[in-house]
């Protein structure tokens, strides 16, 4: 691995988990370089040798020495470096456990099931890997995850966001999971039957709508994903809004 880049650089491909780090950087008002790459290039030897050893997105470089290729690790690293308090929950407080729980399950338990729904959606019908079992596992796991989140938001919790009245990085982690889930299950262009109903999760649905109404969410999950491949200097306050989003907003 010889890749070393100066400054803070985030590698992004459209709708990748990089949206988590990008949204956090926007909230923290930290300038960075965005490198938009083609999904079809991330398994190239050159890319894997120098940028992403696993051939995945996102990747973050910082100060020449820091190289991270796990979205949650990026978010934690950026918070440690740039946050003076907002967007996280202090260690040693009771809410810290909730913060850690929802932060981590967004990429573990949540994504494990949501990724199955996504695969079921994008695998062509002719591919033998597109099985009813894949869909069923995705549905069962996602339902259990959503129900737990619904129960938490409606009975064990107070506030607009998972850790109370302030948006935190746990919500930012969840944004990708809920976004991919919505993309995988809703809209006229899904090949999966409608397997999840928003009305079964009213409190979660209100939370998800609240999140999607934030300008930070819209900037980082909207038109930024329409950018041509290339390198961009992102300054605090820059907006990518204007062309709308290609994704459905409800599941
Ligand atoms: N747990 C990793 C997962 C990274 C990952 O799987 N990224 C996806 C896109 S969001 C990817 O690169 N997929 C391409 C592939 O698996 O070939 C993270 O959170 O960064």
From TrEMBL:
InterPro entries annotated for this entry?
Glutathione-S-Trfase_C-like, Glutathione-S-Trfase_C_sf, Glutathione_S-Trfase, Glutathione_S-Trfase_N, GST_C, Thioredoxin-like_sf
The UniProt record lists the GST C-terminal domain at 92-240
Q: Show where the GST N-terminal domain sits.
A: 5-86
Write down the superkingdom of origin: Eukaryota
Pfam assignment, any one? GST_N_2
* Family of the protein in this entry: Belongs to the GST superfamily.
Q: What is this protein called?
A: Glutathione S-transferase
Q: Where does this protein come from, organism-wise?
A: Apatococcus fuscideae
Which lineage is the organism of this entry classified under, starting from the top rank? Eukaryota, Viridiplantae, Chlorophyta, core chlorophytes, Trebouxiophyceae
């Amino acid at each position: 691995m010889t890749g070393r880049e100066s400054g803070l650089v985030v590698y992004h491909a459209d709708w990748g988990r990089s949206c988590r780090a990008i949204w956090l950087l926007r909230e923290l008002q930290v300038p960075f370089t965005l490198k938009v790459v083609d999904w079809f290039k991330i398994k190239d030897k050159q890319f894997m040798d120098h940028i992403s050893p696993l051939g995945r997105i996102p990747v973050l470089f910082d100060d020449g020495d820091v190289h991270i290729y796990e979205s949650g690790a990026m978010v934690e690293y950026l918070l440690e470096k740039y946050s003076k308090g907002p967007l996280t929950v202090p260690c040693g407080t009771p809410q810290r456990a909730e913060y850690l729980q929802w932060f981590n399950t967004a990429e573990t338990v949540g994504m494990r099931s949501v990724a199955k729904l996504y695969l079921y959606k994008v695998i062509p019908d002719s591919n033998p890997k597109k099985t009813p079992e894949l869909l069923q596992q995705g549905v069962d796991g996602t339902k259990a995850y959503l129900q737990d989140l619904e129960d938490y938001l409606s009975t064990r919790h107070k506030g607009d966001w998972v850790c109370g009245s302030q948006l935190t990085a746990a919500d930012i982690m969840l944004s990708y999971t809920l976004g991919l889930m919505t993309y995988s299950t809703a809209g006229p262009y899904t090949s999966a039957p409608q397997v999840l109903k928003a009305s079964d999760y009213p409190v979660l649905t209100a939370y998800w709508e609240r999140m999607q109404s934030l300008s930070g969410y819209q900037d980082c999950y909207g038109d930024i994903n329409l950018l041509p491949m290339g390198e961009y200097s992102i300054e605090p306050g820059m907006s990518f809004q204007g062309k709308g989003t290609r994704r459905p907003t409800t599941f």
